[in-house]
Amino acid sequence: QQPFLSVKDLKVHFSTEDGTVKAVDGLSFDVAKGKTLGIVGESGSGKSVTNLTILGLHDPAHTTIEGEILLDGENLLTSSPRELERLRGNKMSMIFQDALASLSPYHTVGRQIGETYRKHTGASKKESRDRAIEMLRRVGIPQPDMRVDDYPHQFSGGMRQRAMIAMALVCDPELLIADEPTTALDVTVQAQIMDLLKDLQQEFGTAIIFITHDLGVIADIADDVLVMYGGRCVERGTKREVLRSPQHPYTLGLLSSMPSLEGPVDVPLSPIPGSPPSLLNPPSGCRFHPRCAFADKVSGGLCSTAQPALDVVDGRGSACHLTLDQRDEFFADFAVSR
Ligand code: SF4
Ligand code: MG
User: What values do phi and psi take at 308, rounded to 5?
Assistant: First the structure.
């Protein structure tokens, strides 16, 4: 299937007083219609920056961007701000962690959803209000014809998140970018929102990019997974490949720090020691080497001197100097414990 979104060798660099921050440094991926790509990584790994760049929401004055972002064949990096404005909300749309920041406190929920619709379709006020009610019903707000005139503060946190999803989907976007959209919600509401997104994807065939640091969420919603570290992709593959047989020590570390993909927590967490790399002065060689438990298994001190290439075959690959045999050997304990 032809990818709906295709990102090719994307680089996003910020100029700061202290130097250049290489927030994203050579990233490529595709998302097909009706599919969900999960992007996982710690904060500062470049996952949010990547997606703000796709949406054209970066600050152009301090940002240098290279590469290509093709949405349905159209290169977003050469599109005018006006064109991007038209695409945002219409062809591509986003939901964020914080619904309160996305919804204005001064207007009713219905008006905000309706205005987005009006802006992109030229529908009348009456039609837009009807559409807002329909969207609120679709995202599971009870009595939508009453609640449409409520203000965001009259909604619970979970309902606000639903309202934001309604606003994001009001123009039937073909690409939805969800950046940690359920992080602030309790587990039950989180599960409901995930189910909602899956249902809506089934109904509309939306391509989804789901950004999270939570592998449990990835296990629930993703088809394909991309693991980011220090502005680069370190591993990618199908969800099953990445979660069941990780190839990169960082992915292994993430997986080991979560007890089980299903079921209750009964194993102590072992988060990866150390902190994410500086993107101003990234570590030499493999950016993960200061934290990697396997760096000394690679001969010649290669891990601290040479950057490992990301070798991808049929969408599956990782960037590490360990041989596949070494990984089979070193990661065996992990496989057994699964
Ligand atoms: Fe670890 Fe070396 Fe592989 Fe990097 S290249 S993940 S430091 S073993
Ligand atoms: Mg983020």
Answer: -70, 140
